[in-house]
UniProtKB/TrEMBL annotation:
PANTHER family: NADR_TTD14 AAA DOMAIN-CONTAINING PROTEIN, TRIFUNCTIONAL NAD BIOSYNTHESIS/REGULATOR PROTEIN NADR. Signal peptide: none annotated. This is ATP-binding protein. Residues 14-173 form the NadR/Ttd14 AAA domain. GO terms for molecular function: ATP binding. It comes from Gaetbulibacter aquiaggeris. It comes from the Bacteria. Keywords: ATP-binding, Nucleotide-binding. Pfam families: AAA_28 (PF13521).
Length: 189
């Protein structure tokens, strides 16, 4: 299992969209991948948990976190081989760790935690809660957006992850993200 959580080396710049639910991460991931004519890594948990909801009418449980983390890393490792420029990740294992600690009494599986801390990315975009809440089968904390945002920001600070806060309209967020990614790409050459 532990091998499945390891991040494989790649030559691309790795970007993570990071933050609470319903803050525009997926929309921005898709727009950034299009802008750079690259690939994006979708959030594996969405598919996994939607299937669980559709089949069992159950939401995420602590036992789901390791399969979700393995699925996420399988996707990331597979898709990182398809680009040598920019890989846009809709999430990462650190986000799974934050959810684990927030939803499940402060705990996180030690193996998940180890890889959440060890896996590295060039830049995180922390998405602010100034986007409208959009309910769906899986989103469940519309009244805890500030608390969840703080948990995500605290994790970035605690683990010294480089990040930029994204606020405002879709265009403002995209423009700021492109500015920072272009800087990374310029420095990579």
């Amino acid at each position: 299992m532990e091998e499945n959580l390891k991040q494989q080396p790649s030559n691309c710049v790795k970007i993570v969209l990071f933050g609470p639910e319903s803050t525009g991460k997926t929309t921005l991931s898709i727009h950034l991948a299009r802008y750079y004519n690259s690939v994006w890594v979708p959030e594996y948990a969405r598919e996994y948990l939607q299937n669980k909801w559709n089949e069992e009418r159950k939401t995420c449980e602590a036992d789901d976190l390791i399969p979700i983390a393995i699925g996420q890393m399988n996707l990331e490792n597979k898709l990182s081989k398809k680009t040598d420029s920019v890989l846009i990740c809709d999430t990462d294992l650190l986000e799974t760790k934050v959810y684990s600690e927030t939803y499940y009494t402060g705990s996180c599986d030690p193996i998940l935690e180890k890889h959440a801390i060890e896996n590295t990315y060039d830049l995180y975009f922390l998405t602010y809660i100034d986007t409208p809440w959009e309910a769906d089968d899986l989103r469940d904390k519309p009244h805890e957006r500030e608390l969840m945002f703080k948990a995500f920001q605290d994790a970035l600070i605690k683990y010294k992850r480089p990040y930029v806060l994204l606020k405002g309209s879709k265009k403002e967020r995209l423009d700021l993200a492109v500015k920072h990614i272009n800087e990374l790409l310029k420095n990579k050459k």
